[in-house]
Specification:
The structure holds two protein chains of two kinds. By secondary structure, chain A is an alpha/beta fold. Chain A contains twelve helices and 14 strands. The longest helix of chain A is centred in the N-terminal third of the chain and has 27 residues. By secondary structure, chain B is of the alpha/beta class. Chain B has two domains: about 140 residues, Thiolase/Chalcone synthase (Peroxisomal Thiolase, Chain A, domain 1), CATH 3.40.47.10; about 220 residues, Peroxisomal Thiolase, Chain A, domain 1, CATH 3.40.47. The two termini of chain B are about 20 Å apart. The chains are: A alpha/beta, B alpha/beta.
């Protein structure tokens, strides 16, 4: 899919909460061996006063800080070297949509996106909605934002993927279900830090992972979540996009995939011909676990933290239910100007404090049911 | 009674066939068996299946498969004997032909297990145990076998690691079976390190949940000349039962039904254990292989693991078992496994087992066991 006019990511921002729990702590609580079979060493957990809405606001603010920096550099250049004394905030009235993709909405009925839009001052002349599509809700919001801008309906649209992921205590998903995500401001291609070359979406009704009304935690289909679900959808969307552009994996400097665990991401990438050097910069899952709707977006943010002008980035999300959104991006020189205005993903990951007690972790993860 | 021969065999790949139904799998195996025999006529269909009701919400399998294979309105019924259902279906077909009721009968074993999550499958499998005295108290099938394995370890002074050669052998043999689920070898170290399912049974002691179907077309020996395949004679077919509940056994480590089934089969075929060139045991768990080898007279009590450790059960040993992977390596779609065993014995006797071929094999035995040794269906096949 291509937009009617050039579109790109004009700014991005990530957020990862500080608490970390070691998976060995979780394993010990359930009487399991803390050995090499633990999928990741530790995972991020929201602080006691954090949820998807607050974390989405943090990521959006980081994105707006970068947007402001990029605008300031542009106007400075336009003023022929006259230094601006202060960076002006990004004019949020240029944002026509705020969309949050998540599977951990604080309210069952009431948008998270209105809270975010209000917090960043983008109300009232704005579209707002929450997207639900398991782990690809965030990239679905990216597709919509891209289309909003590409059609000329909006100058800018903000797409956020954020989760405080829910793993049933004792389930193996508890080992990876983490918190965090990223926000992407889409705008005109000429002001982009990374231009969207093309995208595609691939969806089937494959019920590999779901949570019905009144269930506290999602149900997953064990090994069914692999080949017929994650791998086949990732492969189909990625292959279609590469073929539509006449490209191969080797044409990209970086590759970002949904990362439910380190193994799936690497096996899926390798099947498509991407090597570890292309994948490793996006592998945030290795450090903090699976942030669900935030996972692939956080990986993309981590790549934008290091990419250089001219680099091509391949992106493919996956969401259970099931589908994948694939994007082909090309980095512009503006990225270097904007990058330093907000913390990098690695900096956010490095800001951590450990929760050493499983009970305390359960309290933070809202894992204790009080009737 | 007429002599009965196998004139056609067919099997699907064993796997996690998420995109296929029980009807589809059974139909493929039946079609392959008919094509293999080159015979159009089928008079009766016996569908071996353990738990299609619980696993797929589908009963009335005889008619379902007959319809799917274009065989209506022939006689078609489902045969259920827990994990021995596939073997029991082959026996039903054999009896129908031997008794003269039918000339051409197909037995197809089929199971579709991956439509449910593990908890649901575990519950479905537990229906083979005693609902009042075992399953009703939360004892799963793995747990029953774990108790047997623990008792075996206690009585014979062996360790969990000593069961490794049985699983290692199954995987090694499955590598040569294009229809097998697990074609990758495993090591004794991996066996020892595999996660515990029900102490002392680990993942690598256990045959996996999977889907598959295998079919056998039988006919009177007098009709064998009409087919293009080497006919395989069913020299013996027996079915023997014991108590469903383990607690009611005099000695849980002596599987009377398995032993009596083998003894009766030897008598019918006029052979002894020493005449069996290879054996396909019901290796759903490594402990089941050990108990079966001992009950069938291939090993003295408590010595099966020693036999395995000495390499005597390997393809080049004096008593090859699980020649195409067994339940552990090929996979254990429960109600289908007994039929897979017969198909594999036939392949060996025809000399069509490829790299897994047992040289000079003329007599093979397959034994399908349901429940915790509560029903044993034994076949001896010959060329």
């Amino acid at each position: 899919m291509r937009t009617a006019r050039p579109v790109g990511i004009t700014a991005y921002g990530a957020y990862v909460p500080r608490p970390r729990v070691r998976t060995a702590t979780i394993a010990a609580a359930w009487g399991r061996a803390a050995d090499g079979r633990l999928p990741v060493p530790e995972k991020s957990v929201p602080s006691i006063d954090e949820d998807t809405a607050t974390m989405a606001i943090e990521a959006a603010r980081h994105a707006l800080a970068r947007a402001a920096a990029a605008e300031a550099v542009a106007s400075q250049a336009a003023a022929a070297g006259v230094a601006a004394p202060n960076i002006a905030p990004f004019p949020v009235d240029r944002i026509r949509a705020v969309w949050v993709g998540t599977e951990s909405k604080p309210y069952a009925v009431k948008p998270t996106s209105t809270i975010v839009a209000e917090a960043i001052g983008a109300v009232p002349w704005v579209s707002a909605a929450d997207f639900e599509f398991a782990c690809k809700a965030g990239s679905e919001a990216m597709q919509a934002a891209c289309a909003y801008v590409g059609s000329g309906m909006a100058e800018h649209a903000l797409a956020i993927g954020m989760d405080a992921a829910q793993g049933k205590p004792g389930d193996h998903l508890e080992m990876t279900a983490a918190a965090g995500g990223a926000a992407f401001l889409f705008g005109p291609g000429e002001t982009a830090v990374a231009r969207v070359e093309a995208s595609c979406s691939y969806v089937t009704d494959t019920a590999d992972f779901f949570r019905r009304q009144h269930m506290h935690y999602p149900e997953h289909g064990h090994r069914f979540t692999g080949e017929p679900s994650y791998f086949s959808h990732t492969r189909a969307a990625s292959t279609a996009l590469l073929e539509s552009l006449g490209r191969r994996a080797a044409d990209y400097r970086y590759a970002v995939f949904h990362q439910p665990n380190p193994k799936f991401m690497r096996r899926g990438a390798a099947d498509l011909g991407f090597d570890e050097a292309q994948v490793a910069p996006a592998a945030v899952v290795d450090r903090i676990g699976n942030t669900y709707a935030g996972a692939s977006l956080l990986g993309l943010a981590a790549v934008l933290d290091v990419a250089q002008a001219g680099d091509r980035i391949f992106f493919c999300s996956y969401g259970s239910g099931a589908g994948s959104d694939a994007f082909s991006l090309e980095v512009t020189p503006r990225l270097a100007e904007a990058r330093g205005a907000a913390p990098s993903v690695l900096e956010l990951v490095a800001r951590r404090h450990e929760v050493t007690d499983y009970g305390q972790y359960l309290r933070l993860a809202d894992g204790i049911r009080r009737l | 009674m007429r002599d009965v021969v196998i004139i056609g065999i067919g099997q699907t790949a064993v796997g996690e066939h998420w995109g296929r139904s029980i009807r589809d799998l059974a139909a493929e195996a039946v079609a392959k068996a008919r094509a293999d025999a080159g015979v159009e006529r089928v008079d009766a269909l016996y569908v071996g299946n353990m738990a299609s009701g619980a696993l797929c919400g589908q009963e009335n399998l005889g008619t379902l498969v007959a319809d799917a294979t274009g065989l209506l309105p022939i006689e078609a019924v489902k045969i259920e004997a827990a994990c021995a259902s596939g073997g029991a279906a082959v026996r039903a077909a054999c009896l129908a032909v031997a008794g003269g009721a039918h000339d051409y009968a197909i037995a197809v074993g089929v199971e579709k297990m991956t439509d449910l999550l593990t908890d649901g499958v575990t519950s479905a499998l537990a229906t083979a145990a005693d609902a009042d005295y075992e399953a009703g108290h939360g004892v799963s099938f793995v747990a029953l076998n774990a108790m047997l394995m623990r008792r075996y370890m206690h009585e014979h002074g062996v360790r969990r690691e000593d069961f490794a050669p049985l699983a290692v052998l199954a995987h090694a043999n499955a590598a040569h079976n294009p229809h097998a689920l697990y074609r990758q070898p495993i090591t004794a170290e991996e066996f020892a390190a595999s996660p515990v399912v029900a102490d002392p049974i680990g993942i690598l002691d256990s045959a996996a949940i999977c889907d598959g179907a295998a079919a056998v077309l039988v006919a009177p020996a007098s009709e064998a000349r009409r087919t293009r395949r080497l006919p395989i004679r069913i020299a013996a077919s027996t079915c023997v039962t014991d108590t469903v509940g383990l607690a009611e056994r005099r000695d849980p480590l002596v599987w009377e039904a398995v032993a009596a089934g083998a003894r009766r089969a030897y008598a019918l075929a006029k052979v002894g254990p020493g005449d069996i060139d290879f054996f396909e045991p019901h290796d759903a768990f490594t402990i089941v292989s050990a108990l079966s080898l001992e009950a069938c007279g291939f090993a003295d009590r408590g010595s099966a693991l020693k036999m395995a450790a000495e390499g005597r059960l390997a393809r080049d040993g004096d008593r090859p078992i699980c020649t195409l992977g067994g339940l552990k390596g090929r996979g254990h779609p429960v109600g289908a496994s007994g039929a897979y065993q017969i198909v594999e014995v036939a392949l060996q006797l025809r000399g069509e087992a490829g790299a897994a071929q047992i040289r000079g094999a003329r007599t093979g035995m397959a034994q399908s066991v349901g429940g915790s040794g509560s029903v044993a269906v034994t076949h001896i096949l010959q060329v």
